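User: Let's play a game. I give you a shape written as C-alpha cells, and you guess the letters that built it. Ready? Here's round one.
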C-alpha cells in the first residue's frame, strides 16, 4: 500500500510541536504492516540543508507567486517529497511566524501551495508514484482534499488527522482566486467557514475519513464546548470520525541509552535515576536536594495548556517542591513565571531537545494541566522515563494515564494522577495528593514501574491506522 503523507513539519528535520513527532514516527511503524509512506513537506532551509541527494520530479512555472519544484530525497529513514519554493519557504526560524511572533502575512498562499502540490501528487503528477491513500495533517494541509474534489476525476482515498482543532487556518474570502479555488467552492458544503476560507474545515468536509489523536478527544470535539465552531460538521460526519492514540518513538525516548542523560536506567534500576535529578537541579540552578519532589513542565506556554492556573499555584508548589520548566509562548505567562520569587522555581523560555530529555529523566512529577489536550506526547515520555504524570482528565491525557485512586492503587494498575475540573483549586489538590504519594516510597516506585512498563510505542496505533486505511480502501482486514 502506498501512502502520501502531507504535513507542514516532520521530526527530526523541522519541529515546533507534537505534530512533527507523529509524522516522523508513523511511517516507520507502518513498514512492518506492508505500508510504504512518502512525506511531502515544505522546502524550509532546515529541510533543504539535510537533503544532500535530490531528484527533481516536477517543475511549476507560476506557483503562488514564483517558480517551484517537487524534489525527491531520503534522509533520516524518511522518504520525502520536498516542495522547493524559495519565495514561500526560504525563511529562517519558525515555519509559521516571523521574529516578532506574528503570522507570516502570506501563510494562506504558503500552505495552499503545500496543499496544491499534495493534491497533484495524489493524482499522480509524478510518473511511477500512484498513492492509494493521501493522509493530510492539520490545517496546513487542509486544502488537499478540496483541491482533489474540485479537480474532478479519479482521486485516491483521503484521511485527515486533526492534531489540534484550536488551529484552523482561516483566511479572507477575497483570497479565493489567489488560492486557485473555484467560485462554487465558497459555500457551506465547500471551503466556506463563517465567511472565511477554512483550511481545516475543508479537510473535515472532503476527507473520506477523519481521525483525531485520541478517542476521548474525538468525542470532545463533537460537543459545542470542545468543537470550536466545527462540532456541527463533525457531528454530521460522525460515522467517519475516530480517535487513534499517538505513540512515541521508543528508540529516541529510551532512558536505557539516551545520550542526553548523565545516568542510564530502566524499571529494574530506578535508583540510578537520582543522578539525573541532581544533574537537572544543577543545570537549572535549583538547590540540590534528593528528597524534595521535583516537578517538571515541558510545554508551550498557553491558556490551552493550563499554565496560567499552574502559575497561580506557584506559591504552593515552591513551598512543597521544586519546578523545572522548559517552554515558550505567551509573553504575559513567561513574565509571570520569570518573576516568581523563589529559589525553587527555575524556567527556560525556549525549546531544547536535550533539556526536554533531562527533565523527563530527572523530574519526579511531570505536570500537564491542560484545559484540553488532543493527545499529548509529553506524558507518554514521562511514563517511559519514570516521571509520574500529573494530568488533567481531558482528551488523550484521560486515555493514557490511569489515576492513582484507591482502587487502582490496590489493584496495582495506577500510572499517574488525574484531576478534574481544570481550575486552580483542583490543581493544588492534585499537587497535595502527589506529595503524599511521593513520600510513600514503595507506592511511588510502583507508580513509576507501572508507567515504565506501559506500551507507549507506535505498535498498536500503527495497527489501527493500517486497519483504517484498509477500511477506506474496502480491503479485507
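Assistant: Ready! My guess for every position:
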Amino acid at each position: 500500500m502506498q501512502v502520501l503523507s502531507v504535513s507542514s513539519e516532520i521530526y527530526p528535520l523541522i519541529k515546533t510541536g507534537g505534530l512533527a513527532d507523529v509524522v516522523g514516527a508513523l511511517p516507520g511503524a507502518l513498514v512492518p504492516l506492508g505500508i510504504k509512506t512518502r512525506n511531502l513537506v515544505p522546502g524550509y532551509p532546515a529541510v533543504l540543508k539535510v537533503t544532500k541527494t535530490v531528484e527533481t520530479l516536477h517543475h511549476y512555472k507560476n506557483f503562488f507567486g514564483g517558480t517551484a519544484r517537487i524534489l525527491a530525497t531520503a534522509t533520516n529513514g524518511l522518504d520525502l517529497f520536498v516542495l522547493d519554493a524559495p519565495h514561500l519557504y526560504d525563511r529562517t526560524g519558525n515555519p509559521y511566524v516571523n521574529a516578532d511572533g506574528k503570522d507570516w502575512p502570506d501563510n494562506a498562499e504558503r500552505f495552499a501551495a503545500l496543499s496544491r502540490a499534495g493534491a497533484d501528487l495524489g493524482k499522480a503528477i509524478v510518473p511511477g508514484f500512484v498513492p492509494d491513500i493521501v493522509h493530510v495533517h492539520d490545517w496546513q494541509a487542509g486544502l488537499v482534499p478540496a483541491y482533489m474534489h474540485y479537480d474532478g476525476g479519479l482521486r485516491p482515498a483521503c484521511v485527515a488527522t486533526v492534531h489540534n482543532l484550536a488551529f484552523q487556518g482561516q483566511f479572507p474570502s477575497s483570497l479565493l482566486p489567489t488560492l486557485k479555488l473555484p467560485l462554487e467552492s465558497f459555500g457551506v458544503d465547500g471551503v466556506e467557514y463563517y465567511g472565511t476560507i477554512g483550511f481545516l474545515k475543508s479537510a473535515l468536509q472532503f476527507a473520506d475519513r477523519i481521525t483525531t489523536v485520541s478517542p476521548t478527544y474525538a468525542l470532545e470535539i463533537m460537543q459545542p464546548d470542545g468543537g470550536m465552531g466545527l462540532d456541527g460538521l463533525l457531528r454530521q460526519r460522525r460515522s467517519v470520525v475516530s480517535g487513534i492514540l499517538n505513540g512515541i518513538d521508543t528508540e529516541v525516548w529510551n532512558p536505557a541509552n539516551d545520550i542526553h542523560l548523565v545516568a542510564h536506567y530502566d524499571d529494574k534500576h530506578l535508583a540510578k535515576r537520582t543522578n539525573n535529578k541532581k544533574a537537572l537541579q544543577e543545570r537549572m540552578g535549583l538547590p540540590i536536594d534528593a528528597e524534595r519532589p521535583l516537578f517538571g513542565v515541558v510545554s508551550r506556554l498557553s491558556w490551552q495548556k493550563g499554565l496560567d492556573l499552574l502559575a497561580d499555584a506557584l506559591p504552593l508548589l515552591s513551598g512543597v517542591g521544586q519546578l523545572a520548566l522548559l517552554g515558550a509562548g505567551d509573553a504575559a505567562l513567561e513574565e509571570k513565571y520569570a518573576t516568581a520569587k523563589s529559589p525553587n522555581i527555575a524556567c527556560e523560555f525556549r525549546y531544547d531537545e536535550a533539556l526536554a530529555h533531562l527533565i523527563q529523566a530527572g523530574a519526579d512529577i511531570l505536570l500537564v494541566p491542560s484545559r484540553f489536550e488532543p493527545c499529548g506526547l509529553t506524558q507518554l515520555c514521562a511514563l517511559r522515563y519514570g516521571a509520574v504524570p500529573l494530568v488533567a482528565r481531558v482528551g488523550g491525557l484521560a486515555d493514557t494515564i490511569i489515576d492513582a485512586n484507591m482502587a487502582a492503587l490496590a489493584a496495582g494498575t495506577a500510572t499517574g494522577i488525574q484531576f478534574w475540573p481544570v481550575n486552580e483549586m483542583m490543581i493544588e489538590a492534585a499537587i497535595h495528593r502527589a506529595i503524599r504519594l511521593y513520600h510513600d516510597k514503595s507506592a511511588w516506585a510502583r507508580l513509576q514501574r507501572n508507567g515504565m512498563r506501559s506500551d507507549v510505542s507506535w505498535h498498536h496505533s500503527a495497527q489501527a491506522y493500517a486497519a483504517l486505511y484498509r477500511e477506506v480502501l474496502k480491503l479485507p482486514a
